[in-house]
Amino acid sequence: MRHLVLVILITLFAALPRLGVCADGNILGGFEITGFLNVGAGFQHYSRDPITKNLNGGSAFGGSLGAVLPGVNGGPAPVPGEDYLLAFIDNLELDIVKSFGKRARLRADLYFARPLSGSAVGTTSVEHAYLAVTLSEKYGAELALGRIGLETGIEPYERYSLDTISESVLSNASMYPGPVTAMQLAFTPIDDVTLYLLAANGMTDDTLIRTTAIPSGIGIVEVNWGDPDQGNGIVITADVSPDSDANGHLTYGGNIDLYQYVLPNLQLSLEGLARRDNAIAGGVNTTYAAALGNLRWDITKRWYAVFKYAYAWQSAAGNGFYNLTGAHQQLHEAWIGFGHYLADTVKLKWEVRMDVTDPAVGATQWIASSAIGIGCAF
User: Fold this and answer.
1) Which contacts qualify for 96-102: CB closer than 8 Å, 24 or more apart?
2) Which of 261, 276, 301, 369 has the fewest CB atoms within 10 Å, i.e. the most exposed one?
3) What digits encode the pLDDT tens for the residues 29-39?
């Protein structure tokens, strides 16, 4: 009920300027609200071999439907040979932006979900929820405090903008820092180069797990070139965190993302990362390495095709705190998909996906899946 009330209040605030309730200079000036709705349906089949692909403690189980299966919401986990035929709500999102003159602004991205109904984990969450103040217009310096989405990763956290329906193991297993609760300093020393420095609660699941008083440190360099509408660029991220236990058991990570239009209608996006979790009691030092490639071909202004491949490797069974892929193993994921814009902000997507998991001990497993989805930005 409280979520329904929240939606009604947000809608009323958004409608006030249209009704003439506020004028220029009023507190509601500069208020904007947008949103996304992503829904879909799909089929997924597991091979008959024991399943070892369990990403970040049950946040996803592989395949097109892996992030919306009942096991993600506390229901039964997949079993060998099982089939799923599901309709699902990927996410409903409302994004709020409010500017306070030229020196301050806020942003809040609210995610709504229906547990045990084929949607995201939990009922309400935030992807962004921060206040930012401008320190220097000349150097683009800004200080932000709250829940902040990072530039790291080629898969956008806005699911509508994702070329495929499902995400890769890199994102689903939280191998790199996602949105974090942090203090961030961003500045642009020269044109097309932006630096981000963050002190965060944690790198992985930082709203669920807090094990030490020492913050995580994250540094990001973003460099862009060429046509701004195409988004050619590179993003380099380095991070260190005491997420697992205490100061002597650190996690180190690095990530490189590259975006480049090799032809006017052909974009290649590449990502590579490495991460090491030092062992705590009951675990061993565990290293992760992963790579992701996404090739998008804009056939026409309305149609595109996408080819995507992800690889991940985990060196041991976990450091005693994190076991991001489920076992000492190698994982392969491949997609072929299409997208069609039914309208400027309504996108129809279809994908066929194959996952292969090769554990160090045990039989190789596979997951065959396909899904169709519709996304709308409003």
Assistant:
1) 96/10, 96/31, 96/32, 96/33, 97/31, 97/32, 97/33, 97/34, 98/30, 98/31, 98/32, 99/30, 100/30, 102/134, 102/137
2) 301
3) 678 999 999 99
